[in-house]
Amino acid sequence: MTTTSKSDYKADVEVAEVAVNEKVTSVNEGPIDIDDGYSPAFVRSVTRKVDRRLIPVLSLLYCISFIDRTNLSLARAANDQAMNTELDLVNGNNRYGIATMIFFVPYIIFEIPSQLGLRAFGARWWLGMACFLWGVVMMCFGFIQTWQALIGLRAVLGLFECALFPGATYLISCWYPRHQMATRTTFFYVLSVVVCGLSATLAYGLSQLHGRGGLSGWRWIFIINGIMTMVIACVGMLFIVDFPDKAKFLKPEEKELIETRIERDRGDAEYDPMTMAKFWSYVCDVKLWVFAYIFCTSGTSTYALSYFLPRILKQMGFNGFKNVILVAPPYVWVPIPAMATAILADRYHQRALAISLNSLQVIIGTCMYSQLGASHLAARYAGVFIAVGGSNANMPLAISWAQTAIRRQSKRGYTSAIVVAFGGLSGIIAGVSFIEKEAPHGYPTGIRITLAMTAASILCCFGLWVYFKLENRKADRDGKVLEGHPDFRYQM
C-alpha cells in the first residue's frame, strides 16, 4: 500500500515564497498567485469542498433570518389586513413604522458583542442557538394581542438575529483569499434573498388557514415560520463549519492549504485576540465608516422595499392575490445583477465600479416605481425589479469590499459588526422615512431620502477608489506600510 507524500500537494516552500515575493508588486492589477507550490487540481478540490460545507448551510440560516425579519409586511397584508384591526395598528402615530424600526435598535447595539461570542463559543453553537431562539420568538408573534407586544417581540427578535449576518460574513472572510470573497459572499446572500422573495407565496398559502384553531391567518404565518426556523436551527447546529483552525472536516494537508493561501494573500491566517488598543485603532479607521455608510445606503432601499412593497403595489392598483404574488418576481431577478457585479468585483478588481453601477440601478428603479420618472403601470413595476436588484446586489459587495481592505482577524470581526450595524441603522431610516400617512402619495419622504443617500454612496465609492490608488502608489514608491504589512495593497 502506497502513501501520498506531502510533497505531492506542496512544492518546496522556499521556492514558492520567492515566487510570491516577486509578484507582490502586481497586487493592484490582480491577486497574488497564492497557489504557487500547490497542484491546481488540489486547490480546486479543496475549495469546492469548503464551498459545499460552508456556503449552503449559511445561506439556509440567513434565508430564514431574512424571512423572519421581513414577513411582518406580508402578515399585515394577509386576510384584508386583519392584523391592523386585531392589534390596533392603524390608530396612533405610525405604530407599524415603529414596529419595523425597533427591531434594529438591539440589532445595532449587540453587533460587536455578538462577534466576541462567535469566537468564544464557536460558529456552530453560537449561530445555531441564536437561530433557534429567534424561532421561538417568531412563534410567540402568533399569540400576541396588542401592538405593544408586537413592538416588544420585534426588539427581542433583533437581539437574537444580530449574531447571524456579521458572523456569517466574518466566517466566510476567514476561509477565502480576497479575490474570492465577493462571489462567495454574494452567492450566500443572493440565495437567501431569492428564497425570501418566494416566501410571499408561502405566506399567502398560510394565510388561507384563517380561522383554523380560532386563529387569524396572519398568526399562522408567524407560527409556522417559527417552527420552520427552529428546525433549520437544528440543521445548522449539525452542519455549520467552524473557523479553519478548528475545522474537522478537512484533512491536515487540506487545512494547511487553506491557512497558507490566507497567509500569503494577506498575512492573517492566525487569530489575534481583540484588545482595547486594537478596538480604538479600528474605531479611528475612517475607511471602515465609509464602507458602513455604503452598506447602510443599500440597506435603506432593501428594507424599504421589503417592508413596504406590498403597500407600494397596492398603491399601484394591485390588490388581493395579485398584491401578494407580485412581491416574488423582483427577488427572483436579483441573482443576475448580483452575480454579474460580483464577478466584475472579484475577477476584474473593479469593486468601486460594481457598487456604483448597482447604485445607479437603485436610483433609476426608485424613480420609476415612485412615479418620478414613469407613469405607466408596467414601467413602474419594472422599476421595482431594477431597484430590488441593485440594492440587494450591493449588500454583499459592500461588506466583501470592506473585508478586502483590512488585515487581522480581530479587525475582520469588528468590521463585519460595524458594517452590518449600519445595515441595522438603514432599517431604522426606512422605518421612519416611509411614513404611513404618506402611503397614498407614494411615500415621497422615503423616496427622496433613498435617492439622496444612494447618490452620496456613489461619491463615496469614487473617494475610496482615489484614496486606495494613492495609498498603493505611496507603498510602491516610498515603502509606506499599509495595514501593518509591507506587502499589503488595497484592492479597488
Describe what this molecule looks like in 3D:
The protein is mostly helical. The chain has a single domain (55-244, 264-478), classed as MFS general substrate transporter like domains (Growth Hormone, Chain: A, Up-down Bundle), CATH 1.20.1250. It is 73% helix and 0% strand. The protein contains 22 helices and no strands. Helix 5 (95-102) runs parallel beside helix 9 (147-161). The longest helix has 35 residues, at 444-478. The protein is globular, with a radius of gyration of 23 Å.
Helices and strands in order:
Elements: H1 13-23, H2 40-70, H3 72-77, H4 82-86, H5 95-102, H6 104-109, H7 111-121, H8 123-141, H9 147-161, H10 164-173, H11 181-207, H12 217-239, H13 252-266, H14 276-283, H15 286-316, H16 320-325, H17 328-333, H18 335-347, H19 351-369, H20 377-404, H21 409-433, H22 444-478
Helix pairs in contact: 2-10, 2-11, 2-12, 5-9, 5-21, 7-8, 7-21, 8-9, 8-10, 8-12, 10-21, 11-12, 11-18, 11-20, 15-20, 15-21, 15-22, 18-19, 18-20, 19-20, 19-22, 21-22
